[in-house]
């Protein structure tokens, strides 16, 4: 699991560390790790070449000290001070004394495409979002040249705490210090960061109180495998969980069928299709193991494909009265402001639905997904899965938001949300807490989409078992 801290937290942890370390020690750790990474990527020192772009702050300092180490090891190094007259003085002196050659802007640009690697040490966590002027020219020339770029802490131009792809460098690798940054896991910014190496520079998160908690936890496949409920020799359909589905309608019968596909192929114990009669018939025809008679239900999936069902509010209230976990999707979300919810209830809006729930514009949600998902979770008291290119899960009153394993854009199609509801419903029925059910469900869909050719949602669901076999091995 990749933990992400905010700039505010990193600055606080940095202050705490400065107080108990020698001057320059943190930068030494950072630049040592950067130099090691560069050496690994260069492969050897003999005859290899490096262009260091150094900005006015400590990010430039890291780059310069790493350049000094490599120059000292025989790498041919050129160095350019991006803001003339404003450069980390000790780093500059060390780098040039070790043999690096200073070049001006045109010199730096002409070296691109001819050196083995470029070090982007222009701006780090102190950078203003969006490069302009000389910084932008350098970033564009570097990208055009095709020479691999190692960004120091983050690609210069990105806002560390944000998801936006501001004009910035495009890195093949980002060597980042103390903690991953939000821009390295949130799209579209993340795709500008390349491979992420997180370097432990000895920050003590526990020493800074509440600020020490990460703002994001980026889940990885192994985390999903560790939480996935695996049946044992004592399992039966009830211990694996019964999902009740009231989704779909005469207008949208497919939504109910797709929810059942998701639950069935994620390995639920039993599905009861208890919505509109035509949905139950269509579901039974597609999946013969589905039961259409009422009975014990351990978690509900409601709302997908309801359309403008006139009794939706009453039906939702009845289901909430049963006091089992409930996933509320799509048209069911319209009734959320009228009911009382708790963290075991899972809301699964996309950005447009979240915007409607919070009475803001979709653009506002897309600009600040983290702020809005926190607001919704706290306001309604329920767990929220925000669906989209990055899938976030917030638990009410908790600072840390979970981010599902990312997947390709192929799942952006009608019906994907319905099968996802089914997967999450099966995990709720198996007893996973709502946040874990949401992040594991979204991750299973993403991992499957990444491994398969483009498939419609019901066919993708049929491949869930292959992904699970790969994740869980012999368990
Ligand atoms: N955290 C840690 O524990 C450790 C952190 N370390 C390293 O320190 C880095 C943070 O260093 P930092 O605070 O000096 O900020 P950094 O990003 O280098 O630049 C700030 C300067 O740039 C300027 N400036 C900004 N944007 C601009 C623009 N668009 N165009 C023009 N100017 C612009 C800005 O100007 P101002 O805001 O003052 O107007 C200011 O002068 C961090 O990312 C990591 O690499 C490690 O050494 C080890 C431990
Ligand atoms: K940088």
Automatic annotation (TrEMBL):
Binding-site residues, (6S)-NADPHX: 255, 305, 350, 418
Binding-site residues for AMP, renumbered to this chain: 417
GO molecular function annotations of the record: ADP-dependent NAD(P)H-hydrate dehydratase activity; ATP binding; metal ion binding; NAD(P)HX epimerase activity
Catalytic activity: (6R)-NADHX = (6S)-NADHX; (6S)-NADHX + ADP = AMP + phosphate + NADH + H(+); (6R)-NADPHX = (6S)-NADPHX; (6S)-NADPHX + ADP = AMP + phosphate + NADPH + H(+)
Domain YjeF N-terminal: 10-209
Top-level taxon of the source organism: Bacteria
InterPro entries: CARKD (IPR000631), Nnr (IPR030677), Ribokinase-like (IPR029056), YjeF_N_dom (IPR004443), YjeF_N_dom_sf (IPR036652)
Entry EC no(s): 4.2.1.136
Cofactor: Mg(2+); K(+)
Class in the EC hierarchy, top level: lyase
UniProt keyword terms in alphabetical order: ATP-binding, Isomerase, Lyase, Metal-binding, Multifunctional enzyme, NAD, NADP, Nucleotide-binding, Potassium
Domain YjeF C-terminal residue range list: 220-475
Function description: Catalyzes the dehydration of the S-form of NAD(P)HX at the expense of ADP, which is converted to AMP. Together with NAD(P)HX epimerase, which catalyzes the epimerization of the S- and R-forms, the enzyme allows the repair of both epimers of NAD(P)HX, a damaged form of NAD(P)H that is a result of enzymatic or heat-dependent hydration. Bifunctional enzyme that catalyzes the epimerization of the S- and R-forms of NAD(P)HX and the dehydration of the S-form of NAD(P)HX at the expense of ADP, which is converted to AMP. This allows the repair of both epimers of NAD(P)HX, a damaged form of NAD(P)H that is a result of enzymatic or heat-dependent hydration.
Assembly and interaction partners: Homotetramer.
HAMAP family assigned: NADHX_dehydratase
This protein's name: ADP-dependent (S)-NAD(P)H-hydrate dehydratase
Organism (species): Raineyella fluvialis
Phylogenetic placement of the source organism: Bacteria, Bacillati, Actinomycetota, Actinomycetes, Propionibacteriales
